[in-house]
Design a protein that fits this description.
This protein has helices spanning 17-28, 42-59, 65-74, 98-111, 127-132, 165-177, 193-196, 198-209, 215-225, 232-239, 241-254, 265-272, 320-325, 336-341, 344-351, 369-376, 406-418, 434-450, 456-466, 473-480, 482-496, 505-513, and strands at residues 9-13, 32-36, 75-78, 87-92, 117-120, 140-145, 154-159, 181-186, 307-311, 330-334, 359-363, 380-384, 395-400, 422-425. Helix 8 (198-209) packs antiparallel against helix 18 (434-450), helix 18 crosses helix 20 and helix 18 crosses helix 21 (482-496). The protein is an alpha/beta fold and 519 residues long. The structure holds nicotinamide-adenine-dinucleotide.
């Protein structure tokens, strides 16, 4: 299906933050844009905001001054709804209020041509419900831009219950023609990105509640080891802790309190105490004048051990072994089954060394180190967390079993430090920090595909281009191994005894069949 022809007029209703940005995008693509707002002066303020943004582009030599005039001339003011009659596409970006949106759409239906498309930029309201109030619901869809609209590439193109396929196709093609990365999805609470992203915040908030580590350390692990652009607490502060809380609640309510989406108490307490994030001067971090950003906890430099044992088929973490071997420390690999039977003395004997290794390192699998060590009785167990790239990661989280002595942990730290890796020691939480987050993001992604909200390529694209994830969660899960990801989730579900961590049936099925989401 072809994109909306450049000659067609686009109307934008609501000239606030989003409306002005969307008007700029449509005008930059060559359309005549009619900007409408119910508040006097709002359209002029919207045009000014566009002009100021463009002036900054000219300053930075990213746009020619004469192109600014051409673009601004395309954005005209509409004083009355009736003036939108000639628009082939109306994009609504008024207040997030269902009654107001329904009233506007009903008024638009009386004005525009029968084949005009009516789109809403709502972040959370049901497209099906907005369309349900109209004579022709098939022409209504969501066109969800992210803020700032001229910069953010992701656009969720959202089908309501009765949206015509041709309308979806036209909007997909049009958003592409406007230089965006559109993703097709169904109208469900949180749509696609905001639904799939829930555990990025949820797992962090739970870790904080459970004292796994502190805020800057958790953020540093997710940023430096897992490769996310920002840590969850930094992002919560940026977005607004109250805004994120409202989305979490809306999704939780809409799914009839499915524990998957359960909010965490600590977030409510932050709001009750007035800490809303950057906008209130304090959130998880302190933004008041003179406040210093706290440093993540990094283990002090320790002596590397003479030798070390690495347990199990490391799979996704295999690249860590040559990196550790380069330190000159004698690295011994043992299989899972062998670990249960080898004790420190036997290993020392095998090495012919006077001092046997004090510890074994293993990748977390969703169980605690303490539970694993209790069940296999082997050497002191130190678990490491997920990293995006073990060959290059600058940081890695470690956790020790309760039964393991402190000097075992110090030796493990010394080994990683010798390989140029900063170590954050965290509590022995199941699935640690990065691993459980990524496993849950993959789980939510698989659920979204299973529920027909989007396809796998769409989910991965949305999370990469819209949320700056270093990899699409499903592609990441495939790289880790779907069987491994399901094992991590099963271990989390068993350890917590909570339905929150139940593995998506589709993820389980793909893991069982050896299939892939992308093939
Ligand atoms: N701000 C964001 O980060 C963001 C991101 C994505 C989507 N959204 C969604 O976009 C929409 C607009 O958000 P915003 O942040 O631009 O809001 P905003 O408050 O900046 O602007 C809303 C504008 O709509 C006008 N308006 C209100 N009722 C109207 C009506 N009945 N008819 C015409 N104009 C009306 C207001 O006068 C105001 O100028 C909301 O649905 C919001 O959920 C916002």
């Amino acid at each position: 299906m072809a994109a909306l022809a450049k000659e067609k007029t686009v109307a934008v209703a609501g000239a606030g933050t989003m409306g002005a940005g969307i008007a700029q995008v449509a005008a930059a693509a060559g359309h005549r844009v009619l900007l409408f707002d119910s508040q006097p002066g709002a359209v002029e303020r919207g045009r000014m905001a566009v002009a100021e943004g463009l002036a900054r582009l000219v300053e930075r030599k990213r746009m020619a001054a004469e192109d600014v005039d051409i673009l601004m001339a395309r954005i005209r003011s509409a004083g009355q709804i009736a003036e939108l009659a000639g628009a082939a596409l109306v994009i609504e970006a008024i207040a997030e209020d269902m009654a107001a949106k329904k009233a506007l759409f009903r008024a638009l239906e009386d004005v525009v041509a029968p084949d005009a498309i009516l789109a809403s930029n709502t972040s959370s309201l049901s497209i099906t419900e907005i369309a349900g109030a109209l004579r022709h619901p098939e022409r209504v869809a969501g066109l969800h831009f992210f803020n700032p609209a001229p910069i953010m590439p992701l656009v969720e193109v959202i089908a309501g219950f009765g949206t015509a396929a041709s309308v979806m196709d036209t909007l997909m093609a049009t958003a592409s023609a406007w230089g965006k990365k559109p993703v097709r999805c169904a109208s469900t609470p949180g749509f696609l990105g905001n639904r799939v992203a829930r555990p990025f915040y949820g797992e962090a908030l739970r870790a904080l509640e459970e004292g796994v580590t502190d805020v800057p350390t958790y953020d540093a692990i997710l940023r430096e080891a897992a490769g996310f652009r920002m840590g969850p607490f930094e992002l919560l502060d940026l977005v607004g802790i109250d805004i994120n809380w409202a989305v979490t609640h809306a999704v939780h309510d809409a799914y009839f309190h499915d524990p998957r989406f359960k909010p965490f108490r600590i977030q409510g307490e932050m709001i009750a105490s007035g800490r809303l994030g950057r906008k209130s001067g304090r959130g998880f971090y302190d933004y008041r004048a003179g406040a210093e950003k706290p440093m993540p906890r990094t283990a002090p430099r320790a002596e590397p051990p003479a030798n070390a044992t690495i347990e199990g088929d490391l799979g996704p973490a295999a690249a860590l072994v040559p990196r550790l071997a380069k330190t000159g420390v004698l690295i011994r690999r043992i299989a899972n089954s062998a670990a249960a039977t080898l004790d420190a003395r036997e290993i020392a004997h095998l090495h012919g060394a006077i001092l046997g290794p004090k510890f074994r390192l293993a990748l977390s699998d969703g169980r605690t180190a303490t539970e694993r060590m209790a069940s296999d009785g082997g050497l002191a167990l130190i678990l490491f967390d997920l990293a995006l790239d073990y060959a290059a990661t600058p940081r890695l989280a470690l956790a020790k079993a309760d039964q393991a002595a402190g000097d075992a942990l110090a030796e493990a730290c010394g080994l990683l430090q010798e390989a140029g890796i900063a170590v954050s020691v965290i509590d022995d939480a199941p699935g640690m920090a990065a691993l459980r987050t990524v496993a849950m993001l993959a789980n939510f992604s698989a659920d979204a595909v299973h529920a027909g909200i989007a396809d796998a390529a769409g989910v991965d694209l949305a999370m990469q281009v819209g949320f700056n994830y270093p990899r699409g969660p499903l592609a990441w899960a495939e790289q880790l191994g779907l069987v491994f990801v399901v094992r991590v989730l099963d271990n989390l579900a068993r350890t917590y005894g909570e339905d929150r961590y139940r593995a998506s049936p589709l993820l389980r099925r793909k893991a069982a069949s050896g299939g892939s989401f992308h093939g």
